[in-house]
Amino acid sequence: MSETQTLEARVRSVLSEIKDPETGRKLSKQIHGIVANENEISVKVGLTSFAAPLKTDFQNQVTETLKTNFETDTQQIQVEVTEHDRPAQPLGQVGLTAKAVIAVAAGKGGVGKSTAATCLAIALQRAGCRTGILDADVYGPSIPHLTGVRGQVTKVDNKIQPLDFNGIPLMSIGFMVPPDEAVIWRGPMLHSAVTTFVRDTAWGNLDYLIIDMPPGTGDIALSLSQLLPITGTVIVCTPQEVALIDAIKAVGMFRKVKIPVIGLIENMSSFVCPDNGKEYDIFGKGGAKIYAEQAKIDFLGEIPINIQLRQRGDEGQMSANFDDENIASYLERIAYNLSRTLAEKAAASPVQAQLPVLG
Ligand code: ADP
């Protein structure tokens, strides 16, 4: 074996020990190229679109690992992160092809749950993830309003075609019936609507399905959890104490129906006055973070009160928030933190490799 081959083999073995952020498994099959000699170490490693928000972290981690193991200058190390294709497997009995199902919920209405759900989905998609939005807030579907997407669903080959929001498949009761009809639905009708949403809709191959849950009671949560494994719930709350009490109730409800609560978002956490740049904590600050720590839930981030955010919601222009430097970084942070939380969970209990289906 020549010197060069030996070094390449050593680089491969070091890289193999790094964990894939999506599965928590060894990276071995995601090494797409190695050039290693006395002048340089250049590697090409694959990351799935699911873990795309962690791309910079991943690149840094690979660089650092090589630097430490081979005592090489950073200038001599090149790490290219390419997309590693790993399609989602069908979930549960309904066969939805998604890698994570994230329910965005709140203890009560009006805290910005739909706003947060929409922004989370856009942020994940902008980072490179295949994302869908399901508006399951059947009592008050506001996603059509926030996204500006209107229309009626159509059927192709017996599958309902979701509407398109800048490349994000979108499904809402608002696309099926007039809003005043949906509010009177109860029990079995709601269950069958939710089943239609997840089983009979052509979602395609998704990394994330973001579900905007109705506030309060657990009917829809229970229906959904019977249909497919929900990866986790993200609770949205505002900072004042009375709102936190409702959020705590929501956490209790999800835990009761055995859906893990994985993150907390504090919305309307502060207000920067556009006239004088001064920051005001209108509803107080930090309560949600303290509670998240106590309840062992990851704090995913905060969204300030922002007049444009509200206006863009009313104009169906939510994507424009990502061109606004006063708000974009907060929204991107939440998507990043969610990905990191999921990666930590995968690292702690690696996903089993999918075995080939026999027969
Ligand atoms: P929910 O889904 O909890 O009922 P919405 O997301 O529909 O709440 O938000 C309720 C209202 O509050 C909307 O008009 C929305 O634009 C506004 N809103 C939400 N979050 C913010 C924020 N951080 N700053 C300003 N307005 C907000």
Structure annotation, total helices = 11
> What's the number of extended β-strand segments?
15
- Report the principal-axis shape: globular
**In CATH, what is the homologous superfamily of the largest domain?**
P-loop containing nucleotide triphosphate hydrolases
CATH class of the largest domain: Alpha Beta
Structural class: alpha/beta
Radius of gyration over all CA atoms, rounded: 22 Å
Distance between the termini: 43 Å
Count of structural domains? 2
Account of the 3D structure:
Strand 12 (232-237), helix 8 (241-256) and strand 13 (261-272) form a beta-alpha-beta unit. The chain starts with a helix and ends in an 11-residue tail after the last helix. Strands 4, 5, 6, 9, 10, 11, 12, 13, 14 and 15 form a ten-stranded mixed β-sheet that branches. A three-stranded mixed β-sheet has the order 1-2-3. A two-stranded antiparallel ribbon has the order 7-8. It has helices at 3-16, 55-70, 113-127, 143-147, 179-182, 187-199, 219-227, 241-256, 287-294, 307-314, 328-348, and strands at 31-36, 41-47, 77-83, 90-91, 96-105, 131-135, 154-156, 159-161, 163-165, 168-172, 206-212, 232-237, 261-272, 279-280, 298-305. Residues 355-359 have low confidence and may be disordered. The chain has two domains: 3-83, GMP Synthetase, Chain A, domain 3 (2-Layer Sandwich); 90-348, P-loop containing nucleotide triphosphate hydrolases (Rossmann fold, 3-Layer(aba) Sandwich). It is of the alpha/beta class and 359 residues long. The longest helix is centred in the last third of the chain and has 21 residues, at 328-348. Adenosine-5'-diphosphate is lined by residues 106, 109-115, 142, 267-268, 303, 305-306, 309-310, 313.
